């Protein structure tokens, strides 16, 4: 106690380090549970149309040398981002896919690196050729956590929108 009183800055720094370590431990725990199942369903979201689209894309991408790392069918709310934190390895070719509810008007995906710098931004409108599917490739420059934030805008149905997130990586052959 006497040492902390002598150097209060050191005590504050130690508290910040402990909170950061706790945050990392919590993220690691959530990622471990995220990776243990093939498909994680959050909420009562079931959409056969999105499921068929996802199955077709998975089949196409795996035939082209990609391996499925993570996938989740999730319940979303209109105009609210759904943050997904994933570890990515430097120099690895990733394919990220977001499929939104076909009745939504707008679909967006933003991806940020560990320093919260936006590294990807994609937007589709309902009438676009790609429609409710946003798909992009990404090769990280550093091994670090990235955050993917998909969002969809639906003027009629505000809650209980289904979405599907798929992360694949290129298998070296």
Question: Any chance you could write out the topology, listing elements then pairs?
Answer:
Layout: H1 2-6, H2 8-35, E1 40-42, H3 48-63, E2 66-76, E3 84-88, E4 94-100, E5 106-112, E6 118-125, E7 133-138, E8 144-153, E9 161-170
Parallel strand pairs: 1-2
Antiparallel strand pairs: 2-9, 3-8, 4-7, 4-9, 5-6, 5-8
What does this structure look like?
The protein is an alpha+beta fold and 173 residues long. The protein has 2 domains: 36 residues; 133 residues, Sandwich (Jelly Rolls). Helix content is 28%, strand content 39%. The chain contains 3 helices and 9 strands; from the N terminus they run ααβαββββββββ. Strands 1-2-9-4-7 form a 5-stranded mixed sheet, covered by helices on one side. The protein has a 4-stranded antiparallel sheet with strand order 3-8-5-6, with no helix packed on it. The longest helix is centred in the first third of the chain and has 28 residues. The protein starts with a helix and ends with a strand. The N terminus is likely disordered.
């Amino acid at each position: 106690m006497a040492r902390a009183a002598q150097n209060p800055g050191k005590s504050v720094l130690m508290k910040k380090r402990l909170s950061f370590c706790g945050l990392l431990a919590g993220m690691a725990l959530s990622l471990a549970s995220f990776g243990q199942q093939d498909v994680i369903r959050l909420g009562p979201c079931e959409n056969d149309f999105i499921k068929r689209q996802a199955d077709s894309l998975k089949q196409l991408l795996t035939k082209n040398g990609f391996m499925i790392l993570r996938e989740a069918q999730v319940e979303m709310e209109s105009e609210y981002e759904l943050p997904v934190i994933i570890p990515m390895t430097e120099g690895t070719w990733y394919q990220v896919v977001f499929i939104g509810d076909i009745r939504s008007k707008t679909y967006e995906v933003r991806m940020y690196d560990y320093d919260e710098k936006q590294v990807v931004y994609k937007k589709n409108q309902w009438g676009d050729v790609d429609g409710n599917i946003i798909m992009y490739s990404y090769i990280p420059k550093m091994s670090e956590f990235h955050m993917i934030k998909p969002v969809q805008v639906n003027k009629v149905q505000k809650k209980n929108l289904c979405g599907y997130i798929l992360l694949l990586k290129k298998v070296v052959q």
